[in-house]
Amino acid sequence: MLEHGGHLIDASKKYNIPLEQWTDLSTGINPNGWPVPKIPEACWQRLPESADGLLNAAKRYYQCQSILAVAGSQAAIQTLPLMRKKSKVGVLAPAYAEHAYSWQKAGHEVIELSADGLESELATLDILILINPNNPTGMQFSKTQLLNWHRQLNRRNGWLIVDEAFIDTMPENSLSSHPATEGLIILRSIGKFFGLAGIRCGFAIAAEDLLSELDERLGPWSISHPSRYIATAALLDTQWQKKMQAELKKQSTRLAFLLKKRGLKVTAQTDLFLWARESNATEIHQCLAQKGILTRLFTKPSSLRFGLPKNESQWEHLDQALENMAANCIE
Q1: Which neighbouring-strand residues pair with 276?
Q2: Where are the alpha helices (H) located in 223-305, listed in sequence order?
Q3: DSSP state of 239
Q4: The CATH number of domain 41-236, selected from 3.40.50.1260, 2.110.10.10, 3.40.640.10, 3.40.50.1440
Q5: pTM score of the predicted model
Q6: I need a surface site. Which of 18, 217, 259, 270 has the fewest CB within 10 A?
Q7: What is the residue-wise DSSP string for 81-126?
């Protein structure tokens, strides 16, 4: 099983720091997510029903008509490779590793691509998987570019899979509103922008026949009744969404300023996380962890991903930790 951010309990035990004293910046999840209201008792007592309004809310939010709710986009990531015969699959590196892992596990040939080498390799691929914006590098792809690559793949019955987990603050760059087309699969997440990773709800947007097969493979009741209730309400709350889009942009700018002020190299920036390439990233990660700051460490290339602090106390905690360690850890 692959390593991910968010293992705060493990970090607490390893560094002997109580959970409540940590500032967790390791996930890229909005730390001030949508405020969950009281959940009706019926959500706990009855099985979920497909006609509960979730898909209508999702169609409105994502501006599409052909969509399937899944137990987090991870459910689709793990299942889509089972729906193809052996294929040659291209993935960017570094990127969210579950995509490559799931296709390899299912017996497909997976090759890692650099951004510069993607165009030249496209003609050899059956499947191209991109995260837009990419996690952790922040790289973005235009809609025109993506649709051009989709047309090339679709001519030979290939797929373009675009994971849009971090695109909610810039919906104008999303392909979710593009008419459902064979071979184009869009994955969306409730966990990141809405800060609701724990409800395990996401969406796949694609042609109806593909979604029908995916739905059949996932089986009934893949998302719990309480999760469907929360996701529906969050997707309909346009006032909160607009306010949060603006707030996250401000918080991201603030984080970039703070990291640069303390000598870190901010290589890329999105509204939910920043990426810093540092030759001694492991040392910086450990220095911060000793101060109760959890970051996401990458070794290829040597780098760190920083999510957003939750409140002023965490902002001060991060600033103090960076200031204290700057002389010894930051080159």
Answers
A1: 266, 304
A2: 225-236, 238-261, 281-290
A3: H
A4: 3.40.640.10
A5: 0.95
A6: 18
A7: GGGSSS-EEEEESSS-THHHHHHHHTT-EEEEE-TTTHHHHGGG-S
